[in-house]
Specification:
10 helices; mainly alpha; single chain; 2 domains
Length: 191
Amino acid sequence: MIIFILGLSLFLGVHSIGIFADQWRNTQIIKLGNRKWKLLYSLFSIIGLVLMTIGYKQHSGPADIAIWSPPAWTWTFLVYSNLVPIILLVATYVPNNAIKVKLKDPMTIGVIIWAATHLVNVASLGGIILFTSFLLWAILDLMTCRKRRANLTPTQAKVSIPMTFVTLILGLGLWSLFDRYAHYLRGVDSF
């Protein structure tokens, strides 16, 4: 569990710099340059993700502490409800789509939904720690982004209906791949 907690702390710690140490982050970007900062940020994020994954894998399975037994329907709920965060993830990267223009922070909102829906299905202590941590981080990040944006002059982004349609189609396609993967993991088909 130590490797898992260390990886989770490193991953979320790196992603929390903008929440808790924004001035320091800006100073480092000026000092190191944007490219070097992004390289270091990515490197520490990947190390955290690898440690978190290895630690979670070591902790999961029969050795994990079961907190409760979720009903069978929660797996189907989880698979279908994750359509929304996947579309929000895609919306983050597709320019001028209505979802991004309206929500401003679609990826962070997607992480909130993703973590909350996983908490409905997860039964283990490791899973509860993982998804609760991501949920709390995403809520803090969303509040910070909204507060930071409140001090800026609002800009009106142009909405493109075709790009919104592309966002929805790509999100649905990515979600269907996720469903296939979920079927592979659990042997449960949601269609």
